[in-house]
Specification:
Strand content: under 5%
Mean pLDDT: 91
CATH superfamily: CRISPR-associated protein Cse2
Low-confidence stretches: 168-179
Radius of gyration: 17 Å
CATH architecture: Orthogonal Bundle
Helix content: 55-70%
Number of strands: 0
Structural class: mainly alpha
């Protein structure tokens, strides 16, 4: 784990500890999930800034992540898995095809000021949540922080994990059918 990953993991753990027993704060944050910090309502802003402080460059991905994290109950947070692993766990081969189309659609999107990317990502996460799978908040925050990195390593990892996992499932099915 590199230094930034550790900072993120520590901050998420501290935020989870703070929010675990504050249902009102979690509700305020959950209500603005999928929106940017700049357009959040006063209640959500107040709850966010009550959390442990962090460097300014981390505020936007932290806010986006913490609001999405609040979609789940506090007792579920520790069971989270990275987003694409969650997607792979959540869907059958038929539903993965539809999710794959949604994934392809966001890969080239920037995290823009109007929130289009976040709206699309939020819908995908809600889709995964509807299948009972929990997203790892620290990994999501890290991915959002580096989404626009020039090497696009987050997008490459997401695509690789999604499609190679699908290929492995298809190969297993083919091998099973051959027997």
């Amino acid at each position: 784990m590199n230094e930034k990953e550790q900072i993120i993991a520590d901050w998420i753990a501290a935020a989870q500890k703070t929010l675990a027993n504050d249902k009102g704060a979690r509700t305020a944050l959950r209500r603005v999930a999928g929106t940017k910090l700049a357009v959040a309502n006063g209640g959500a802003l107040a709850e966010f800034y009550k959390l442990p402080s962090l460097p300014v460059y981390l505020e936007e991905p932290a806010f986006e992540t913490i609001c999405i994290m609040c979609l789940w109950e506090a007792r579920e947070w520790e069971k989270g898995v990275p987003f694409i692993q969650a997607a792979n766990k959540a869907f059958t081969a038929e539903t993965k095809e539809n999710f794959g189309k949604k994934l392809k659609a966001i890969l080239d999107l920037p995290i823009d000021e109007d929130g289009y990317f976040l709206t699309k990502l939020y819908r995908m996460i809600k889709f995964v949540k509807s299948k009972g799978v929990i997203i790892d908040a620290a990994q999501l925050m890290y991915d959002l922080l580096y989404w626009e990195h020039e090497k696009r390593f987050v997008q490459r990892r997401w695509v690789k994990e999604f499609y190679q996992n699908n290929h492995d499932i298809e190969s297993e099915g083919e091998n099973h059918n051959a027997d």
